[in-house]
Design a protein that fits this description.
The complex is a heterotrimer of chains A (about 325), B (about 250) and C (about 270).
Chain A: E1 2-11, E2 14-24, E3 29-32, H1 39-46, E4 54-59, E5 62-63, H2 69-78, E6 79-82, H3 86-89, H4 96-107, H5 112-125, H6 142-155, E7 160-164, H7 172-189, E8 192-197, H8 200-206, E9 209-214, E10 217-223, H9 224-229, H10 234-242, H11 277-281, E11 287-289, E12 292-294, H12 299-303, H13 306-312
Parallel strand pairs in A: 3-8, 3-9, 6-7, 7-8
Antiparallel strand pairs in A: 1-2, 1-4, 4-5, 9-10, 10-12, 11-12
Helix pairs in contact in A: 4-5, 4-6, 5-6
Chain B: E1 2-11, E2 14-24, E3 29-33, H1 40-47, E4 55-62, E5 65-66, H2 67-70, E6 80-83, H3 97-107, H4 112-125, H5 142-155, E7 160-164, H6 172-189, E8 192-197, H7 200-206, E9 209-214, E10 217-223, H8 224-229, H9 234-242
Parallel strand pairs in B: 3-8, 3-9, 6-7, 7-8
Antiparallel strand pairs in B: 1-2, 1-4, 4-5, 9-10
Helix pairs in contact in B: 4-5, 5-6
Chain C: H1 6-23, H2 25-28, H3 60-96, H4 98-113, H5 116-126, H6 131-158, H7 161-169, H8 173-209, H9 221-228, H10 237-264
The chains are: A alpha/beta (about 325), B alpha/beta (about 250), C mainly alpha (about 270).
Chain lengths: ~325, ~250, ~270
């Protein structure tokens, strides 16, 4: 339904995301990347907040940036964002109830009583006390704010939620509960998620397929489980190994983590323990390796576990 | 080197942190884990004597000085160093990092060639390139800034680093690198660390001893391995359960 | 709101008193506004005439009270008019961006290029000297500042997540501006408004002093000074009391404005 086809995105004529294709499909799609990867830019484009420099974003069969008034309204009613920080996503001067009412009013004509009833119902559906409708954002905790943002998004009864780091600003226990909520909403309301995060565990929880974005390019794409258990790109492997685990191996820092992406050859070469001459000169193109698409010259070796050996040396 | 006994921090009538006992020994990494409002940062700030408008009772013995009674002015920035979540704001933006570090050293009477030597050594100790000394704060990434903050502490002769969520503003791969640096300093140089974090997984990667706090009280405390293996309090169990887990890697380790 | 600093509170109290004095001038003043009494002209301050009398025997205390009406009326009208124009254009420019912003900002820049008093003088010369002229003249030079200030604040508000969220909900741009951008852009403008009150009082007094503003028999502080200036050495009270009134009011506006600026500074907002 919502699809980006080979889009290049940027600001002021400077591209930050190159040739990215995404299709938001049932089961959820994750876009994994760290700061500067361009992941938020992709989210903004899918929400119709910025226009692609090239390529097209289509909703149904039509180009998102050529929708008529009615189609645009329909699109707005079906794709909703949940941004990272609830204190940023809610107008600080508005009561929570008014923020949700604004969403309701944008798509339905409701009388006062019906609207209040809907607000109560929405707040309850995200596990919030309806009395919080009278509060302003700063009077809520981080977790409550994020739930309020989700309630507002649900007000228009969307099919797709674009989640941009929905739990990254929250404490761990709160994060876990918000993830539970998102997981249960997906099944109870038939929601499809397009999730943007640097947190692999969050993607694993909510998305059946994933893409890994590095320096504005997709380096690996496929079923989330496949990517996480048998990464074929050294960057995916590095992301996974960097996550600290209780009782597990200590987090591993691979290569020069903060080296700038290369502009020639493979962007990841400076950080890659497996980089060879071909990586320095030829930009790898995406190809099928072991059930996923990957842009790496040495993907077969990475799948085979070579990356761990390279780290030791 | 730091020993907290019967610490209580109050604002008005409200107790915001209560720590019966906590000790950081040389070469040890002690972590205080908790969520916002747990009192973990308050405890850290009490050690540094940086709490304003709060009443502190009990004793905090740091290198033989009772901080509660006599303050920590002589210890801050020398034997005890603070590393914050985003250090970039704390660096003077108009000064190159090398100048900044040399100024800090000059304050401690270290000048000339000796200062240069110490600066370069400290930067290498945190796995940074010496060229960072010629850069301005805005020219370095968050992870580099964080490691440089640790380097400053080392150069000034810190024996214990107090770190408040030192990696929560960083990407995972960058966090891993900062953690690697801290582990190395801890293993090889016997640097002591008092770490405050909400991230149990991170804490499990570096801490020798863990204290769990909730709503200003200590709910559990013990050696890290034991605490993670057999948590006694329900809250600790909840925290451990909340840590997002990844599926295990599939291929054989090489 | 967080508490104002003590000086700003003094300013607020003084200003409140001046406003009350202006509102209740007819009740408070011991004499009618225009009671000519040539036999009792240029009397020094006494129990009967607290601030003395002027050349034609009018009670100066009475004239100051009525003058407060004129001055505060001018301030209110100028602030209202220039805020209306400036904030409207500014918020549109800030939210819309692109060429809309460019056009509005160019026009604003043209007005800003003229020195305020000079533009006011020119306006006052073209129109007939009167209180209305003063208001139009000052407002013409004042609104561009509000436009510029509002545009920059609105531009940053427009980038906030809640504006994106409203856009994604399908809320129309005018509604987004009125509901989200405008209310969240107003704080710095309010501070500026309060700060500018003093400047407007001074400018209005200057225009009247130059004969381009309020005309006899309107009670206006600047005009009172103009008419009494030759008497400064012999009958000091004629000039001194209106001068003090101007100073006191301008001072009250300024300290209140500074206090508001400090109190509303986002860096001091509690999290």
């Amino acid at each position: 339904m919502l699809k980006a086809d080979n889009v290049t995105l940027g600001y002021g004529g400077r591209p930050v995301v190159h040739d990215v294709s995404v299709e938001v499909t049932e089961g959820g799609v994750g876009l994994i990347g760290e700061s500067g990867s361009g992941k938020t830019t992709v989210a903004r484009a899918l929400l119709g907040l910025i226009k692609p420099m090239s390529g097209a974003i289509t909703y149904g069969t039509r180009d998102l940036n050529a929708l008529g008034r009615a189609d645009r309204a329909a699109f707005r009613g079906q794709v909703q964002p949940v941004f990272q920080d609830g204190s940023e996503a809610l107008d600080p001067r508005m009561r929570i109830g008014s923020s949700i009412a604004e969403a309701l009013d944008a798509h339905h004509r409701l009388d006062r009583a019906a609207r209040d009833a809907r607000i109560t119902e929405l707040l309850e559906s995200v596990g919030l006390d309806p009395a919080l409708a009278e509060r302003r954002p700063h009077q809520l905790s981080g977790g409550q704010r994020q739930r309020a943002v989700i309630a507002r998004a649900l007000a228009v009864e969307p099919d797709i939620l674009v989640l941009d780091e929905p739990t990254s600003a929250l404490d761990v226990t709160v994060q876990a509960r918000v993830l539970d909520l998102l997981a249960s909403l997906a099944s109870s309301r038939g929601l499809t998620y397009f999730l943007i995060t640097h947190n692999l565990a969050v993607v694993d929880r909510l998305c059946r397929t994933s893409q890994v974005l590095f320096a504005g390019r997709v380096v690996e794409a496929g079923p989330t489980r496949t990517l996480l258990t048998r990464p074929a790109h050294p960057y995916t492997a590095a992301l996974r190994d960097a996550v600290p685990k209780i009782g597990g191996a200590p987090p591993k820092a691979v290569g020069k983590v903060e080296a700038a992406p290369a502009t020639e050859g493979c962007a990841f070469q400076r950080r890659c323990p497996l980089a060879t001459d071909v990586c320095r000169t030829v930009r790898p193109v995406a190809r099928e390796v072991a059930g996923r698409s990957v842009a790496c010259h040495r993907a077969e070796e990475v799948v085979g576990g070579q990356i761990s050996g390279a780290q030791g040396g | 080197m730091i020993k907290i006994t019967d610490l209580e921090v109050r604002i008005g009538d409200r107790v915001i942190a209560q720590v019966p006992s906590l000790e950081v020994r040389p070469g040890e990494c002690v972590a205080i884990v908790g969520e916002s409002g747990s009192g973990k940062t308050t405890t850290l700030m009490a050690v540094l004597d940086l709490l304003e408008g709060a009443t502190v009772t009990g004793s905090i013995d740091a290198f033989g000085t009772d901080v509660v009674k006599h303050g920590a002015k002589d210890l801050r920035g020398s034997r005890i160093a603070l590393v914050m979540q985003s250090p970039q704001g704390a660096f003077n933006p108009t000064m190159r990092l090398g100048v900044l570090l040399r100024k800090a050293l000059a304050k401690h009477g270290v000048k000339g060639g000796e200062a240069d030597r110490r600066a370069r050594e400290a930067v290498r100790d945190v796995l940074l390139d010496e060229s960072i000394l010629r850069r301005y704060p805005h020219e370095v990434s968050g992870g580099q800034a964080q490691r440089f903050a640790i380097a400053v502490a080392l150069a000034l002769g810190a024996e214990v680093i107090l770190a408040d969520e030192p990696t929560s503003a960083l990407d995972v791969t960058v966090q891993a690198e900062v953690v690697a640096v801290l582990r190395r300093l801890h293993d090889e140089r016997g640097l002591a660390v008092l770490l405050v974090s909400h991230d149990l997984a991170l804490v499990s990667a570096i801490a020798d001893h863990v204290t769990v706090m909730k709503d200003g009280r200590v709910v559990e405390s013990g050696p890290a391995a034991e605490l993670f293996a057999n948590p006694t309090s329900a809250y600790t169990r909840e925290l451990i359960a909340a840590v997002p887990t990844l599926p295990e890697a599939d291929h054989a380790e090489g | 709101m967080r508490r104002l600093d003590p000086l700003a509170r003094v300013g607020a109290v003084v200003l409140a008193l001046i406003v009350l004095a202006a509102i209740f001038a007819p009740l408070l003043s011991p004499y009618p506004e225009d009671a000519l009494d040539p036999l009792n002209s240029l009397l020094p301050p006494s129990g009967e005439h607290w601030f003395g009398t002027d050349q034609v025997g009018r009670d100066i205390f009475t004239r100051i009270l009525y003058g407060a009406r004129t001055s505060l009326g001018i301030v209110a009208a100028v602030l209202g008019l220039s805020a209306l124009i400036g904030v409207t254009l500014g918020v549109i420019a800030g939210y819309a961006g692109g060429w809309t912003r460019d056009v509005i900002m160019r026009v604003t820049d043209v007005f800003l290029a003229f020195p305020a008093l000079l533009l006011a003088l020119a306006t006052a010369v073209v129109l007939r000297p009167s209180v209305t002229t003063v208001i139009v003249a000052i407002a013409a030079t004042w609104w561009p500042w509000y436009a510029r200030l509002t545009a920059s604040v609105a531009a940053s508000v427009a980038k906030r997540g809640y504006v994106d969220a409203a856009q994604c909900l399908g809320v129309s741009p005018p509604a987004i501006v009125v509901r989200h951008v405008l209310p969240n852009s107003l704080t710095p403008v309010l501070v500026q408004l309060s700060n500018d009150g003093g400047g407007i009082i001074l400018t209005a007094a200057a225009l009247s002093y130059l004969g381009l503003g309020a005309q006899e028999p309107t009670a206006e502080w600047g005009l009172m000074i103009e008419q009494g200036q030759s008497l400064l050495t012999t009958d000091w009270w004629v000039v001194t009391f209106p001068g003090l009134a101007i100073m006191l009011t301008a001072f009250a506006f300024n300290v209140l404005g500074e206090g508001l600026r400090a109190a509303l500074d986002p860096r001091r907002l509690p999290r």
